Amino acid sequence: MTTTLATPAAAPGRAKSVPGGRILLGAAVPLLILGLWWLVTGPLDLFTPTQLPAPQRVLDAGVGLLEDGALFAHVGISVQRVLFGFFFGAVAGLLLGSLLGLSRLADGLLHPTVGAFRAVPSLAWVPLILLWVGIGEDGKVLLIAIGAFFPVFTSVHSALRHVDPHLVEAGRAFGYHGTRLLTTVQLPAVVPPVFSGLRLALAQSWLFLVAAELLASSEGLGFLLIESQNNGRVDRLLLAIVLLAILGKTTDALLGIIERKALKTWA
């Protein structure tokens, strides 16, 4: 007697994943925007070149800056400022957020003050930074670090305040105390919200970069924005905006890869 084994049916509602399908899906909207851009500046001719240049003109502007070496200089210095500012701001936010999240005394003493500073608009720091630090690289990095600090601080502080107390007690039962308890039990328990804060801080770093470079700079993508506006070069202005979007998304994707590795290790 022959027994036939039935093949399990696929779970309803679960489509088979296609390699690269998520990338193609994510590229659909940018390609649609690019197509509409070409349509309204080409066949439909709804805008003049001074209002909205065609995509080809923006690409030509990028090629021109690339050929004279200016494009790499603008992109390189902006990326450098963002990475330094993000690093210093994130480290400071992680340390202070951990202190206030773990100590009720420190939380009661410092949290109202930190919350008040968090409400200060970003541009309000600029005059003070210019007076104290100057218009050099230190001032720009400091402004970006301020922007990166508060999202990390808020996420770490809030996450540590809501760690399961039973998990902490179990760690103490195994002899973990102080720094060892923090690094072994508490921080791994808050990895997802911490990385959410880091990704928000990275986005804030790019926002604060533009604020820093718009006000006092001779190079960088923010400087390219204001210079293009003053010279009426809308093609270069749009190029700077597109580059900021690409760089912001690229750095966020890289941080997302680190997040997934961290979640596999700790969470």
Automatic annotation (TrEMBL):
Record bears the keyword Transport: yes
Pfam family, one: BPD_transp_1
Gene Ontology CC annotation, any one: plasma membrane
Keyword Transmembrane helix appears in the UniProt entry: yes
Highest taxon in the source lineage: Bacteria
Gene3D superfamilies, alphabetized: MetI-like
Listed transmembrane segments: 23-40, 82-103, 115-135, 141-160, 181-200, 237-258
Domain ABC transmembrane type-1, chain residue ranges per copy: 71-255
Keyword terms, alphabetized: Cell membrane, Membrane, Transmembrane, Transmembrane helix, Transport
Topology term for the membrane: Multi-pass membrane protein
Family (UniProt): Belongs to the binding-protein-dependent transport system permease family.
Protein's name in the database: ABC transporter permease
Organism: Nesterenkonia salmonea
Taxonomic lineage of the native organism: Bacteria, Bacillati, Actinomycetota, Actinomycetes, Micrococcales
